[in-house]
Amino acid sequence: MRQNKLKYYPPKFVLRDPILEGVYQAMTQGNQVAVVVITISNLREFSQQFEPVQLKEYKSVLREGFREVVEHSPFREDLLVVHDYYSEGLTIFLKINDDKQSVVHIEKLIRILLPKLEKYMFTKYPYFKQSFEVGYMFIERNYSTTQEALYTAQQQAVAMAEKRIQSRYIETLLEMREIIQKRDISLLAQPIIDLSSNQIKAWEFLTRGPKGTALENPLQLFSLARQSNLIYDLELLVLEKSFQLIDAVGCVDDVFLNFTPITLGNKRLIAGLDKLLTRHPDIDPKKMIFEVTERDSIEGLNFFHDNIKQLRKKGFRIAVDDTGAGYSSLHTISEILPDIIKIDRSVIQDIDTSKVKESMLKGLILIARETGSLVVAEGIEKKEEADVLKRNQVDLAQGYFYAKPGNMEKARVALL
């Protein structure tokens, strides 16, 4: 008689249908969904001081305060649900419709929520100093079920939040360091088109992590790099790989490279760049555009303005990304007077059916003309959008309508 062996599976949380349906619907509509977990790092200390009944009450107050803070946050429309999936932490499911902004969007949310939550809890428990930690992870689409994908992301976010679980945090840190040491990233190229001639004018290089792993997804890769304080190292590696690719294919077009303000404000940047230029003497700085990405504030970055000045002295040009998506990009434009302004795809999407968006475009073009900046429109997906851009004399454009990110030479041939 055949004996059935019991298999052990780690316990999984049973998710309510509304949560699963909300996450599934958001993802099928093309949005990213992130799991943000907040834990109380000194809960054990609190537990030792109070009776179980008091501890239960504390957790109830914490959940109540958390919900109140979230409900009154400026990110309310992006929140799918707030939930306490496990007894010692709180979870937010955050819908983000612009994958290039997701990491910064989450970190802004954290910077706003945590002080308010701490203030709320202090009014309830002034004699106990609460300390919170945060972790986040994006829900992957390549799982068999939404529940499995959600559970995996939530557990990874918990591990990142509870850095007291040193094995998982150290494992993540070592994984990122290994990727950087082995230079295990690759670059895709997306052409940028001159709308007056319909010819390739430039390329934007886009990063992918180790092939066949979760970190191949740039969202996961840069998310973990930021949380492990290795974003500068990763982006300097991207710069090195970019120089290698330019040399390898003999690219003579302009090249756009994305950099966070964190990297552009790092005091090691100029020295690191000089070393790379020495190794790659054929690189022409005048062909390189350093693109200030994301909606991070540049305030408080002591070396940012000095680094920008030194980059320009070397011949590099500066672009500001995401213009029209929020206040930060407009503030950055006024601060650094960029050579190029990239208009966010949120303005471009369906602009052919929206007079308001076209008016926004005209206003941004006027700002660009005042600052002497070229204009690049991002996210063009159909001919009608491209026609509006031509009508308004936008300089350059990129998007799936022209080509998806891929091999540079193949994209060039396809566009001929």
Quick recap of the structure?
The chain is an alpha/beta fold. The chain is 47% helix and 18% strand. It folds into 2 domains: 17-164, Alpha-Beta Plaits; 175-415, TIM Barrel, CATH 3.20.20.450.
Please explain how this structure is put together.
It is a single chain. With about 425 residues, this protein is α/β, with parallel strands linked by helices. The protein folds into 2 domains: about 15-165, Reverse transcriptase/Diguanylate cyclase domain (Alpha-Beta Plaits, 2-Layer Sandwich), CATH 3.30.70.270; about 175-415, EAL domain (TIM Barrel, Alpha-Beta Barrel), CATH 3.20.20.450. The chain has helices at about 15-30, 45-50, 50-70, 100-125, 145-160, 165-180, 220-225, 230-250, 260-265, 270-280, 305-315, 325-335, 345-350, 355-370, 385-390, 410-415; strands at about 30-40, 80-85, 90-95, 130-140, 185-195, 200-210, 255-260, 290, 315-325, 340-345, 375, 395. The strands form 2 sheets. An 8-stranded mixed β-barrel has the order 5-6-7-8-9-10-11-12, surrounded by 5 helices. Helix 3 crosses helix 4 and helix 8 runs parallel beside helix 10. It is globular. Mean pLDDT is about 80; it is low at about 1-15. It holds the Pfam family EAL. This is EAL domain-containing protein. InterPro entries: Cyclic-di-GMP_PDE-like, EAL_dom, EAL_sf.
